[in-house]
């Protein structure tokens, strides 16, 4: 049975490793992700500039090796510099924000365009909705995704419905509004700094919901979200802010919204995910391919609403097996919608039931957070099970 150790000063002096942030000494699969070698990141300029989704200017340019929060900062800086209608605001945004995503932007662009708001999520999103209706391009930051719930009424009943409610009255909408928020687990976030509430927004027509997996994706998808004429919920995996580092094109560029990306082609099973769990999926499929002699296709949804049904259907019709992986709770999650759609559209091609590997339907405990969300073992075992079905 797992027994948490009492933390003492002498424990630290002996090099004690916190239980909740460590892995078992003899672990084979559940070991930390090596972000310095994972194929999901571009480790040199050549790989970064070979991305066929990039515009020609970006492909012919240079790169810089940056992490995810720096990529977000670069996208915000470009948007503020190129469009005077762009505003950036939220709690503590002026000094850089909790994760430093808006660092130095208030100094460069002034406190009339980058500024702090009162500690009121409902108020700052309501202000953002009004600014968007007046033709501005507001970027509102929720300090943590866990804090978005007071603003839920504004998002669902105002932001998402504005264009539909306006009918033939052109110009009355919240297009151009982006609501950014750090989301997901970090290993010790507990009840109020761990949540992944994306599925709540995927039920709301009128919104786009985007989750990037890497610095390049964060920069390109955020610039696309800012340019989009639909309101966008942009959820940034907080554990990747500093962990994920890669070469990112220096030029401004956008990546397509509502378009999935096939990260690795395969023929035996399709694994679908987004955000942080993609790295766990990559580790699991690498082990499965080596030990089970199979071929796994890995897909990043990127936009979880509206999601790319055509790409997913094409993959599952080819492989006949599918696993959906996400951090948020399994009940009524993104995986439920994906699984239901696959069952409806690909039933005659399926060789096994669609599987979901997701967070358990419980609140996140502090020391036990890693047991709540998917890990490499759970994904590996699910790949094995669907292959043997």
From TrEMBL:
<dbReference type="InterPro" id="IPR009014">
    <property type="entry name" value="Transketo_C/PFOR_II"/>
</dbReference>
<dbReference type="InterPro" id="IPR033248">
    <property type="entry name" value="Transketolase_C"/>
</dbReference>
<dbReference type="GO" id="GO:0003863">
    <property type="term" value="F:branched-chain 2-oxo acid dehydrogenase activity"/>
</dbReference>
<dbReference type="GO" id="GO:0006091">
    <property type="term" value="P:generation of precursor metabolites and energy"/>
</dbReference>
<feature type="domain" description="Transketolase-like pyrimidine-binding">
    <location>
        <begin position="66"/>
        <end position="243"/>
    </location>
</feature>
<dbReference type="Pfam" id="PF02780">
    <property type="entry name" value="Transketolase_C"/>
</dbReference>
<dbReference type="GO" id="GO:0007584">
    <property type="term" value="P:response to nutrient"/>
</dbReference>
<dbReference type="InterPro" id="IPR005475">
    <property type="entry name" value="Transketolase-like_Pyr-bd"/>
</dbReference>
<dbReference type="Pfam" id="PF02779">
    <property type="entry name" value="Transket_pyr"/>
</dbReference>
<protein>
    <recommendedName>
        <fullName>3-methyl-2-oxobutanoate dehydrogenase (2-methylpropanoyl-transferring)</fullName>
        <ecNumber>1.2.4.4</ecNumber>
    </recommendedName>
</protein>
<keyword id="KW-0560">Oxidoreductase</keyword>
<dbReference type="GO" id="GO:0009083">
    <property type="term" value="P:branched-chain amino acid catabolic process"/>
</dbReference>
<dbReference type="InterPro" id="IPR029061">
    <property type="entry name" value="THDP-binding"/>
</dbReference>
